[in-house]
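Annex B. Sample input.
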Amino acid sequence: MLYIGILLVIATLCLIVKRYETRMVLVVSGIVMCCVAGAPIKALDAFAKGMGSGMISSACSSMGFALVMRYTGCDKHLISALAKVLTKVRFLVIPGVVLGTFLVNMALPSAAGTAASAGAIFIPIMMGLGIHPALAAAAVKCGTYGSMLNPGLAHNPFVAKIAGVGVMDVIAFHWKANIASLIVACIAITAIAYFMKEEDGHYAEDLKIDNDFKIKPLYALMPMVPIVILLLGATKIVPIFKMGVAQAMIIGVLLSFFVTRTDPTKMTKEFFDGMGKAYGDIIGIIIAAGVFVAGMNALGLVKAFINAMVSNPAIAKICASVGPFVLAVIVGSGDAATFAFNEAVTPSAASFGMTPVQMGSLATLAGTLGRTMSPLAGATIIVAGIAGVNPMEVAKRNVIPMVLALIVGCSVLFMQG
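Annex B, continued. Sample output.
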């Protein structure tokens, strides 16, 4: 069954690369795997569960907000305002977006929430500057692992508990590796943009910058409202702003109405049209990805991978970095492999010449970077939906940056031991 599962996974990835309809391929593959495993109902259960995905509110409200910004013209005002500055330092735009997203993710530890809120701002700006949509989405996705520096990320207290230290001690240990990997990722994604000639010339007609366009400052500020609210709330600077992505997006829509005085009926229609589009294009793929992962679980692929990783102490150091990374790429989440490895192996880190904090940080960083590269990750699907491209196109552009980030980040952690 494992060999059949591996063949089906490879076939699935090949079909997606060949640009067959992503949702169709993932759903069919998941159903076939569940049927082979003799548990077809698991595929249907996964489909039903995905329909109530926790990402619905973030993804749908963000897409609704994005369409309202486009309808009111606020996005064009922001893009035009920033273009006057950014066109003078174009070489800093892409790394600047990666860094900006990383900082947002430090405050908002949810990768999907960060992708929705930061992507709604950064992706239209980059597209307005002529950057290829897939590259714009990849740049945002490239920065969605800043959560490792947030004490609220579940892995940090988990490793701290195993090691018997404070959460901030864990972060103090791995922050250098995080920053080093971020620098490498920034350089790599920028180099890819220039090498593929995707840094300029790919203008979206509705976002193309008009040099004679008269900028209204208040209009330009409207797209920034939700992310400012979320950051002020998450950092507790303004405690009353502690809220979810959807709530912040609604506030942004309401403020935009009072500022722009556009037709409230049409604005409402645009918002709900955006929500519907997000459910079909973004949540639809998330649902399909869930069916695919259910198929892999039914065949025992995920469990076999984790067992192979945690039951080979002779290569524990390699498994701590490569194992969670590979599994996260395949299933779209770094949590399964990372938690399994840290629970089973990290308490015995001293036996392998490492500290629990060092080994736990290795697994966490690897899983996070793998998820950042995965075409099945919720955050990847969200940024791809905002940019209007296939998630695989986003993932392809993040392969080299994330692999290099893994090598550099893990090297720093090994040297710190």
